[in-house]
Amino acid sequence: MLKLITILAAAIPIILFLKTVFFGRSKVMQEASSAFRKQVDYLVWAILFLVGCALVYSIAVLIYSSTK
User: Fold this and answer.
1) How many domains does the structure of the chain reveal?
2) Residues 33, 16: contact at Cβ < 8 Å?
3) Which of 6, 29, 41, 50 has a 20 to 30 Å separation from 13 between CA atoms?
4) Among candidates 19, 39, 38, which has minimal Cα distance to 29?
């Protein structure tokens, strides 16, 4: 699952770049692209938040297990 997310995250900028180069930009495309980038930004922040929570949890478990 993580590999799929990584591949998609890496492919999105390439796809957007190729669309811009070969098909140009229209007003509608700019608005759609802006909205899509905003959603991707939210997704990235959510994933970073979850990774941070997992990191804090594992450090807390490590500290708790070493104090026993």
Assistant:
1) 1
2) yes
3) 50
4) 19
